[in-house]
Amino acid sequence: MICKVIVDVSNSEVDRIFDYVDGGLDVKKGDRVLVPFGNKKLEGFCIDTAEKSDYDPAKLKPIAAKLDDFSCISEEMLALMRFMKEKFYLRYVDCLRLFIPGQMRGGRVRELKRLYVELSKDVSEEEIEKLIPARAHRQLELVEKLREGGEYLSVITEEFGAATVKALEDKGIAVKTDKAVYRKPYDGLKSEADRVRLTDAQRQAVDKILGGDKTVSLLYGVTGSGKTEVYMNAIDRVLKQGKTAIMLVPEISLTPQMLRNFRARFSSGVAMLHSGLGPGERYDEWKRLLTGEARIVLGARSAVFAPVKNVGLIVIDEEHDASYFSESNPRYNTCDIARFRAEYNGGKLVLGSATPSIESFLLARKGEYSLVSLPDRISRHGMPKIQIENMSQELISGNNGIFSRRLEQELRKTVENGNQAILFLNRRGHSSFAMCKKCGYIAKCEDCDVTLTYHSVDNMLKCHYCGKRYKMLTQCPDCGSKEIRYGKIGTQRVVEELEKMFPGVGILRMDNETTTKKSAYLDILGAFKAKEAQILVGTQMIAKGHDFPDVTLVGILDADMSLYFSDYRSAERTFQLVTQVAGRAGRSDKEGLVILQTYSPSHYVYRYAKNYDYLGFFEKENNSREVTGFPPYSTILRVLMTGEDDETVKNCARNMFVDVRAYELENKNEFLFLQAMRSPVARIERNYRYQILMRIKREYEDTVVREIYRIIDENKVRGVSVFAQINPQSMS
Ligand code: ADP
Ligand code: ZN
Ligand code: ZN
Fold it and tell me: According to a count of CB atoms within 10 Å of the terminal CB, is the N or C end of the chain lower?
């Protein structure tokens, strides 16, 4: 038997299938193996078996060993690998690595085995009675306990003492065995299984998602409309059909609350996969899914690769969230993966959001997705009022600070009343834009109508969509003011200002710096919930999912940061963010207020966001995308080339571009834009970076992308890594 093997080396030059002979090891498709490679032995994946090889079988080397006593990659995942390679231009091995816990590679995880105590099956009830004297209460109690089921030795010893256990063992009543232990993350979380009755709207939503003829549904439901209950009920129904389910949430909304809800509802049938797990825990959860012991997986993006079989339902909650795009190698879009798996298994995919991406809502409106709506909140309380503060006006009135006068006033009120406030700072990427603080003028690209990004290294403004460079502004071209802002407000500075304003008031700060430790994130949220502080200052991390009943005030300090981010999606992102952050205020019986500070108070994003008018916003934004030719009306494809030698990378880019250009000239009507250039960030970690950027008309996406990938293959050279990105989230 010939085994087709992908070796576990991430390198363009070895991204091929190698043939080995089985060597009598009975290797099957999906097994991990050890193979001789050059003068080394490497781990690899057997992705196929065949009767014959194109090579002389006498020259093929035999597989050295099988690495696991189970098969870790299913037929479905092998098909997914091929799909991903074709769609996202990935290496085989980079896909395969996503399918197994990282720690399995190199054999770094062992199954944990512990001693386990059970009643012996060879001893009858009567014999037990004879064997234990009536006064040996502890022994009798232990027998009583073991009648309900076995338990780990350590647990028993703690409760009954070693002597009691030994006594039963000596009499042959109890036996010890080795048993694999699964490390259960968050095992301490208690369940509170109070189940709610679905509203009519919720029940109809579940029916439509599972019963409709479309594979994909878009569940558009305002915040607090009870989407989570819909997901859980749909999952329940799918489980009853003997199938499995995948529930995806943005990493950030994986709060203990969410975990608790799922544990309460599905107990140990749910496994969790997210970055907060230790390697051992991650492996155990993965293994429970592989064996079918757990049939639901709850996790962040990468849980879409969970080894469950016969998937009946995949949920992507907060589907608009940027974290569903993987932006470093391997680059992929979670939604495409989920859709592949749903279609492969004849299951369903539901995308849920209060602010769906323009792309998804458009597909729903066109009828490609089934549109399921939950227009009303479960509770009778409305959404909090959003008050817009014009920061240019503040400047003109002599207030040069971080807080508008109104926000300062409201903060005082909140603190005095014993309530809580959240101050939100907008943070995306490491770059920034140039803006006039007086009139709100924003520097934009003359050709692309997107905001220019400020690069401090060379003090230039650059367009990330066409590569054009501009001098940094020193004066506003509109009003002549020299007050140009290009930096960001730091969380640290906000906290310092607050400490001056409110001496003695508890203030917490949550951002990348304060949450480097795994548990810090939960600690800070816990402290705020316990009212150890009255003000929480934070970045994106505090935007969603959290429920603090005493928060009555939310301040968005620099809403514009995402509005003018150099990205065609910036209006969309800002709308989503404002809606989400606003949802943190006034969640219980106390009325909430949101203060949004901006230099562009009349921008349409704020007009619609203020009224929570998603549909109005969609119409406007959708229209503008169509007019400017940005996604979803086009597809942006970025081919990124990196390598240590500048000349080599540049030449590779140049050669590739010649071929792409030739293709474009023959097919002019399929393209909207094509250019080769240095990447906006020209060098990262000693690697030089060049890119070919194109915008393709949507209807030609499939054919053009395939053709470009073919051109890449033809032009790839040693020393240059080539990556593709479809509609990248960031263009640095
Ligand atoms: P969403 O995910 O749409 O923002 P949630 O699922 O968090 O909304 O629901 C909002 C609140 O309403 C939660 O506290 C939830 O427990 C409650 N809830 C949901 N469905 C029902 C129902 N059918 N009856 C009573 N309460 C419900
Ligand atoms: Zn100006
Ligand atoms: Zn441009």
Answer: N
- State which residues have CB under 5 angstroms from ligand 2, the bound ion: 436, 438-439, 441, 476, 478-479, 481
Determine which residue's CA is closest to atom 9 belonging to ligand 1. 226
Residues 211 and 334 in one domain: yes
Helices 614-628 and 358-365 sit at what angle, rounded to 10 degrees? Answer: 100
Question: Which pLDDT tens digit goes with each residue over 196-210?
Answer: 889 999 999 999 999
User: Which ligand is in closest contact with the Cα of 473?
Assistant: 2
Look up the CATH number of the domain holding residue 84.
Answer: 3.40.1440.60
Structure tokens at 266: 């599905």
CATH of the domain at 644: 3.30.70.600
Most confident of 148-157, 176-185, 256-265, 666-675: 666-675
| pLDDT tens column, 551-585 | 999 999 988 877 776 678 889 999 998 998 888 77
Structure token pair of residue 21 = 């002979």
83-92, 250-259, 334-343: least confidently modelled range: 250-259
Ligand 1 lined by 546 (C-beta under 6 Å): no
Residue 191 lies inside a defined structural domain of this protein = no
Which two tokens mark 677? 């250039």
Verify that 617 and 648 share a domain, yes or no. Answer: no
Identify the sign of the CA torsion 61, 64, 70, 74. negative
DSSP designation for 477:
T
Assess whether the C-beta atom of 197 lies below 6 angstroms from ligand 1: yes
Q: Whose C-alpha lies nearest to ligand 1, atom 16? A: 226
Does ligand 1 lie within 6 Å of residue 353's CB atom? no
CA–CA gap between residue 212 and residue 360 (Å, rounded)? 18
CATH code at position 358:
3.40.50.300
Same domain, 522 and 457: no
The sign one gets for the Cα dihedral 685, 688, 694, 700 is negative
Is 195 inside any structural domain? Answer: no
Domain that holds residue 143: 112-181
Residue nearest to atom 24 of ligand 1 (CA): 196
* Residue 169, CA distances (Å) to 10, 134, 151, 156 in order: 53, 17, 14, 13
- Please name the residue whose Cα sits nearest to atom 25 of ligand 1: 196
What does the pLDDT average to over 502-510?
Answer: 93
DSSP for 639-674, written as a single string: EEEEES-HHHHHHHHHHHHHHHHHHHHHTGGGEEEE
Give the C-alpha separation, 653 to 659, whole Å: 10
One domain for residues 651 and 619: no
Judge whether 187 lies within some domain: no
694 Cα–ligand 3 center, Å: 12
**Domain match, 345 and 389 both:** no
Encoded amino acid at 262, one letter? F
Instruction: Write down which residue in 107, 131, 156 finishes a domain.
Output: 107
127 & 209 share domain:
no
Same domain, 472 and 368: no
Is the beta carbon of 629 within 6 A of some atom in ligand 1?
A: no
pLDDT tens sequence across 335-364: 999 999 999 999 999 999 999 999 999 999
Strand partners, 246: 297, 314
Of 107, 140, 160, the residue at which a domain comes to its end is: 107
Residue 190, in any domain of the structure:
no
| Same domain (yes/no): 440, 521 | no
Q: Does residue 629 surpass a pLDDT of 60?
A: yes
Closest-lying ligand to the alpha carbon of 476? 2
The domain total for the chain is 6
- State if residue 615 touches ligand 1 by the CB under 6 angstroms criterion: no
HSE-up of 494 (CA within 13 Å, CB side)? Answer: 28
